[in-house]
Amino acid sequence: MTEPKRLLLGILLATGAGWSLLVWMPLTKLGPAGPGGAPFGRAAVGGRIYAANGCASCHTQVVRPANLGSDIARGWGARRTTPPEYREEHIVPLGVLRLGPDLANVGERRTDVRWYYRLLYDPRTIFPGSLMPSYRYLYARVPLLGTPLPDALPLAGRAALAPGFQVVPRPEARALVAYLLSLQRVPPAEADQSQ
Amino acid sequence: MAETSECEETPVRAGTRDAVSSLRVPVLGLVVPAAVWLWVASILALLGSLKLVDPRFLGTWGWLTFGRISPAAFLSFVYGFGIPMGLCAVLWAVTKGGRLPLPGGRWFLASSFLWNLGLWSGITGVLAGESRSLSWLGLPTFSLPSLGMAYLLSAGWLVAVLVRRWEESSLASRFLLLGLVWIPWAGGAAALWLHDPSVRGVAIGSLEWWFNDGLLYAGLGAFALGAMHLLLPGFLGRPASFAGLGRWAFWAWVLFANLAGMAHLVGGPFPLWMVSTGVSSRFLLWAAAVAIGLGFWAAARGAPAEGKQWDPGWHFLRFGMGSFLVAAGLGAVLVLPAWSRYVHYTVLEEAQLTLFLYGFLGMTFFALLYTILPRVLGRSWPSVGLAKAHFLLSSYGISFLAGLLAVGGLFQGVALDNAEVPIHEVILSLLPFLRSAAAPAMALLAAHAVFGLHLLWLLVESGANRREGEKAALPGVAMEGARTP
User: Hey, is B157 helix, strand or coil?
Assistant: First the structure.
């Protein structure tokens, strides 16, 4: 066998070894899909919006064990996250940076839908000086006809609108909030039972 | 192989006009769009940096939100600049530095057109919100067929020519072959796998990180190491020292680049053996990097002192190798559990990536361009001053950017580890570092602007040269694996 052929074979085998160990084997260990199947509905759409807007650039969805960080002490989860908690998902944004809190369990910590709407519209009204960008493009400015709509944001000060208008979340914002509320990977009750 | 023996027996003629002219169109077909992508990447990265100074900056447009422009910036750099530059290095290698003609040059134009078409649609898709948030695999599905076809068109042809003109002792050819074949094998497999509905859960996470580190080390890293070995004899008059150690390092690189990605998943929902494999592989990659670095510095130390002429290529190459060694060392140390506890998910990891991408890959590819373009175009770079400005702006920009992110990341990591400090305050303490980083980001953009202007000047002058019918051949450059006359 000539040297280039030996090299090509070696590269193929090394790539195949990495592939088998780190990609194929984890998938076989996961087993067949569960009866519930993949997430669907508004939360699943919200997952795609989460991915499309690059939320994983600043937020992780991984609770590390107590010996590898303060995640549990911060209340981001009652225990470390394990593979079954991601089992049926096709978007698995584990994340690369923490320029904000971990979101693996955020649906357990924050349950007020309106809080999320306010945060996404203008994060600085909740966390002054925050780095989080505003997602105003996920909202619509609509005329105020009589009583404000139930989801209309209570805007005051610099963010206040001209009289006769209100700001309401678009379907994308509703889906994103539904997804965030669905993130309850390590509920405390389950963690208590497992101990 | 036949041509190999011919090359060993009979020194080939330097810079024959036919051979050089067969290289001109394919090289320019790669370099010109790559320079545009470098600009796009720099502008997007600067916008991202400015958004960290004031998050409300351009905040009303969804397509310019931080979470979209940040991946768009590095995808533009990796796929728009990095891979075409790797192919450029292979073109230079298979033509033995412009001494042998390149058959099938038109394929490269078709390939370049398809590649850039796919990439424009892909980056536009990322900005429009079509990404699946898979970092290095983040280009939307609709851009992949065009990119795949483009790569196969040029890489398939280049592998065939590289093998036909194989040089037995060449480390450059080995690394370039690794980069050429790893990208379509792994990229194709990853793209197909991601579109299989049965692939789900943490398997997607391990696939993502296997590919990310593989592309960084076995794809782009191999191209840059190949380019370094290719250029070294031209600068020093000798190849890298310790050839045996270099061959060992090559095989270590091939194997461990495929296993290193799991190091990113320390503390994640993965079995311990997978994470341990990743951490060990990062250390063994570092060992391979040190072996390669030893060969480089030993050759450089024994070389004659630099002449009067300031050589931009050599300065870029030396900076690139320094960054390579530091980035490989950081890549190993930061994933140790004792360190990972503090620095994982902090901007210190971004500092390491910046050093590898911009410090090593970027600077090595600039060394390649400063060396080959005068030979391909038959005209020296018009201004030493602009080349110096490019080098100084790049080297200071990269050093300060990586330094600020590294120190900021240390502060961030220590504060994150203290559960008493609210996450909001952790980020506020990081802000001075992130905001200061906008200045070196601007220096990098200025460096790339200077390079773009210099390239444009060179192209205009070389066009005028050709019209005047001036002879194009410059003296041949020594390169590894090809005898110089």
Answer: helix
Distance separating alpha carbons of residues B275 and B280, to the nearest angstrom: 9
Query: Rounded to a whole number, what is the distance in Å from the CA of A54 to chain B's nearest CA?
Result: 4
* Residue positions counted in chain B: 485
Neighbours of B93 (CB within 10 A): 28
Q: Report pLDDT digits (tens) over B333-351.
A: 999 988 999 999 999 999 9
**Quick one: which of B135, B117, B125, B105 has its CA closest to B209?**
B135
Q: Is B432 on the interface with A (CB under 8 A)?
A: no
The fourth-level CATH superfamily of domain B2-467 is Cytochrome c oxidase-like, subunit I domain (1.20.210.10)
Cβ partners under 8 Å of residue B227, min gap 6? B85, B86, B89, B172, B176, B364, B365, B367, B368
CA–CA separation, B210 vs A43, rounded Å?
A: 28
CA angle A77–A78–A84, rounded 5-degree value: 75
Name the minimum distance, in Å, from the CA of B309 to any CA of chain A.
Answer: 38
Question: In chain B, which residues have pLDDT < 50?
Answer: 1-15, 470-475, 481-485
Query: Cβ–Cβ of A80/B197 closer than 8 Å?
Result: no
Q: Is there a contact between B261 and A22 if contact means CB atoms under 8 Å apart?
A: yes
Q: Which of A9, A15, A29, A130 is the best mutation test for B, with the most CBs of B within 10 A? A: A15
In chain B, domain spans = 2-467
pLDDT mean across residues, chain B? 87
Give residue-wise pLDDT tens across range A105-136: 999 999 999 999 999 998 988 888 888 999 99
Which one of B200, B209, B429 makes the best mutation probe of the A interface by having the most chain A beta carbons within 10 Å? B200
Question: Does B57 touch chain A if contact means CB atoms closer than 8 Å?
Answer: no
Tokens of residue A9, six digits: 């074979």
Q: Write out chain A's pLDDT in tens, 195 residues.
A: 688 899 999 999 999 999 999 888 888 877 666 666 667 789 899 999 999 999 999 999 999 999 999 999 999 988 999 888 887 888 889 999 999 999 999 999 999 999 999 999 989 888 888 889 999 999 999 998 888 888 888 887 777 777 888 999 999 999 999 999 999 887 555 555 554
Does A70 reach chain B within 8 Å, measured CB to CB?
yes
Residue B348 has which token pair?
């210190």
Residue ranges in B379-469 assigned as alpha helix (H): 384-417, 423-436, 438-467
Tens-digit pLDDT profile for residues B98-125: 788 888 777 888 899 999 999 999 999 9
**Cβ contact A26:B265 at 8 Å:** no
Place of tokens 């369990």: A105
- Give dist(CA B99, CA B93) in Å, integer: 10
For residue B479, the SS3 value is strand
Tokens of A81: 């996250």
Q: Are strands A139-143 and A165-169 parallel, antiparallel or unpaired?
A: antiparallel
What domains lie within chain A, and their CATH numbers? Answer: 38-194 (1.10.760.10)
How many CA atoms lie less than 13 Å away from B460 in the CB half-sphere?
A: 7
ipTM field:
0.89
